[in-house]
């Protein structure tokens, strides 16, 4: 059964994908995509800071608003770089059932192996 939450995300992803071929003057999303990943990244950073400020101010309603902006801008950035959200979901699925500390340690170990291979 597909949840309402995943339907909303799927619809948003579809809209963002459709905006890739839209006129930048007709859509905020198309305008972001036209400006490129660096600009989108700055917007994502801005929205992330606003979310952190809302959390620091213990303002759940504002945090929810800013979190929606963070999710939106992250999805736009993924689209700009042709990274499928399915790739992200697959990584998250692989991490389920693995303790966060163990998963982080395995990533650090992989990075150390890559560095030593470069020597």
TrEMBL record:
Name of the featured protein: Phosphoribosyl-ATP pyrophosphatase
Species of origin: alpha proteobacterium IMCC14465
Alphabetical list of InterPro entries matching this protein: HisE, PRib-ATP_PPHydrolase-like
Gene Ontology CC entries for this record: cytoplasm
Enzyme class: hydrolase
Top-level taxon of the source organism: Bacteria
A Pfam family that the UniProt record links to this protein: PRA-PH
Membrane-spanning intervals of the chain: none
One BP annotation, GO: L-histidine biosynthetic process
Catalytic reactions on record: 1-(5-phospho-beta-D-ribosyl)-ATP + H2O = 1-(5-phospho-beta-D-ribosyl)-5'-AMP + diphosphate + H(+)
NCBIfam families: histidine_hisI (TIGR03188), PRK00400.1-3 (NF001611), PRK00400.1-5 (NF001613)
Pathway(s) the chain acts in: Amino-acid biosynthesis; L-histidine biosynthesis; L-histidine from 5-phospho-alpha-D-ribose 1-diphosphate: step 2/9
Protein's gene: hisE
Cell compartment(s), UniProt: Cytoplasm
